[in-house]
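Work Package 3 (structural annotation) set out to generate three-dimensional models for the target panel prioritized at the project kickoff. During this period the team completed the workflow that converts sequence records into discrete structure tokens, so that structures can be stored uniformly alongside our sequence database. As a representative example, we reproduce one entry of 462 residues exactly as it appears in the project archive.
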Amino acid sequence: MCSPIVDNDKLKEECGVFGIFNPDGAAAAPSVYYGLCALQHRGQEACGIAVCDTGGPKGNISWHKDMGLVGEVFRPSVLKQLYGNIGIGHVRYSTTGASTAENAQPLVLKYLKGTLALAHNGNLTNVAKLRQELQESGAIFHTTTDSEVIACCIARERTRTASVEDAILQTARRLKGGYALVIMSPRKLVGVRDPLGLKPLCLGKRGSSYILASESCALTAVGASFIRDIAPGEIITVTRDQVQTDRRLVQDKHAHCIFEYIYFARLDSTLDSVNVYDARIRAGRALAASCPADADLVTGVPDSGLTAAMGYAQALNLPFAHAFHKNSYVGRTFIKPTQEERESAVHLKLGVLKSVVRDKRLVLIDDSIVRGTTIAALITMLKEAGAREVHVRISSPPFLYPCFYGTDVPSNDQLIAASYTADQICAKIGADSLGYMKIEDLKQMTGDLALCKACFDSRYPV
């Protein structure tokens, strides 16, 4: 199964992770379920939950995972079978490994000294080297994912360390790339964030329970209070009696993924002290300053372009309106095999509000142009509905380079900006004008936060 049909021309985040420890013995699975529902935007291909009862037999981890959305995979009858007071969960969009149920997470691994479950967001840049070392030591692989490599590394280190935390630390020392990990052993919940901070992870609390999640919106979904972001390089361990932190991998150099603020994260999340909604409003304002347009109305592509469109309209004192009705009940479908069928799918997902756009000069805001197919179809729809002009503004710089850290930026030959100039793209998509966010203006979104912008400038932090 695939992502929403109108998003075939969008970037995909690899996944979202969630974990909870209920020291009072309460079942973890319902909270993990609601947390994953809140993180569904981070991955729609597959999901899974693993739980363990700290009062039961040690090492007895039960789990369920499958292809599909959270609400499809976890019916009430399934959740009732997952009893345990520690739980972790995962929603997945595949950037490495095939899109199959076998590669769904959490990954549950039994090894010489016990059992662990792992949920992982991100990509490693040295996974080939790590896999080779493991194979030379006799490890057997059933999948091709980075997640299995990480889990096997932890299992190997556990044979020569005093605790699972030490095994995780020794493994993390060798990992290169972007990752956020939530790991469950029979008595502990552990969170790990890569030293650059490429992938988000935060800590929350509800009563005596502690929660780890990719975004703060998932804490809100389970009635938890946000405590803080996990620091880049930090390893945090939750047990029945305490919360411990290990900062031996913390470093000064950070590179937070800019696309969390442009597109991936939910509007009601705050990541590394930056509110996502406010960041996108500021992006629209910066775009208006650098690329104004003489127009009657500002609108956005649902849902990702709407907030930046509001900021753009505010900055230029132009009216903002919704030009599209989004059909929220279409759900997912298989990617259509031909360009003609893909464009028909856009019509199925979005309908133009003709009375809004008729005889108007429009500014259409979107967060990015990857291949250009969707934006071209939307411009055609607007003009067929009577729009006089459609001026496209993009609240990110042109995509020129692939990402290696867990964001599905395709190869250069699939990036329209890598092959065509802005004027050529404007002509290909049928816009009356086209303007992108300036790369130097990205700091207006996030302030002093250190950013990874490699997909725009090829300056890879690893």
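Confidence is low (pLDDT under 50) at residues 1-7, 332-337.
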